[in-house]
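A.,

Following up on our hallway conversation. Structure tokens first:
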């Protein structure tokens, strides 16, 4: 295989069903999409970092901050389809989809995804996961969960695992994070796969991969910081940025030391 070259694409759109306009909400003086883009750039190893959007408002904000951004179709329902369109113009062997609401993603965790791809580049799909921390997360429909096998493959994804009687032990259940990896060929073929019943009913990109009998390899991150999917989560994120020492350090970098 030719030398591995990994690009990052950050999909973002204004028309979120649960929190419209969330990519441009301001936190600590920066729009959320810019937090995510700068955090991604702090991770070494990406050949490109590109925001993919169908909204001129987002395009203009990223351009204002001297970021790389491309316009994509407004017809895409799932984020991975948007990423696939943007990937067609990039010279790379693999891509990492950093969802535009993963505002607390840690650059060192993104490096774990890069390393997983470099170790076995012949794989097609990867997804970041993190441990379940409490029973509340099991019941929270804004958090996608999964079940993993002994070989660290993801076998099933869903939003609500509350019917499981786990007796306080979460076992093979993990949080699914909005960080997905693909080989270029797999990503481009994703758009040709038929949409699947679980994907449609729960709006989970990963279900299209799993229901089409394709392997999805899990990559364990150090923790599962929340993204912003609903208005209430914005306040949670703001508190973490003020109280978590690791997060404060990254925030300081993107506010005071970094501009690209």
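Then the amino acids I'd put at each of the 260 positions:
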């Amino acid at each position: 295989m030719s030398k591995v070259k990994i690009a990052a694409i950050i999909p973002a759109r204004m028309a979120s069903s649960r929190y419209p306009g969330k990519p441009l909400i301001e936190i600590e003086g920066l729009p959320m999409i810019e937090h995510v883009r700068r955090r991604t750039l702090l991770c070494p190893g990406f050949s490109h970092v590109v925001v993919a959007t169908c909204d001129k408002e987002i395009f203009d904000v990223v351009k204002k901050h001297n970021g790389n951004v491309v316009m994509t179709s407004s017809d895409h329902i799932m984020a991975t389809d948007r990423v696939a369109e943007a990937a067609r113009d990039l010279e790379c062997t693999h891509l990492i989809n950093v969802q535009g609401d993963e505002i607390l993603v840690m650059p060192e965790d993104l490096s774990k995804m890069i390393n997983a791809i470099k170790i076995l580049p012949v794989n097609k799909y990867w997804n970041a996961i993190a441990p379940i921390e409490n029973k509340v997360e099991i019941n929270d429909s804004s958090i996608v969960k999964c079940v993993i096998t002994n070989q660290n493959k993801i076998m099933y994804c869903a939003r609500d695992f509350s019917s499981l009687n786990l007796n306080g032990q979460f076992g093979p259940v993990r949080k699914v994070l909005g960080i997905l990896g693909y080989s270029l060929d797999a990503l481009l073929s994703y758009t040709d796969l038929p949409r699947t019943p679980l994907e449609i009913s729960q709006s989970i990109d990963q279900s299209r991969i799993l229901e089409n009998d394709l392997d999805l390899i899990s990559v364990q991150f150090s923790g599962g910081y929340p993204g912003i999917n609903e208005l209430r989560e914005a306040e949670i994120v703001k508190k973490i940025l003020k109280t978590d020492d690791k997060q404060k350090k990254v925030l300081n970098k993107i506010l005071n030391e970094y501009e690209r």
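The longest helix spans residues 107-119. Curious whether your intuition agrees with the design.

B.
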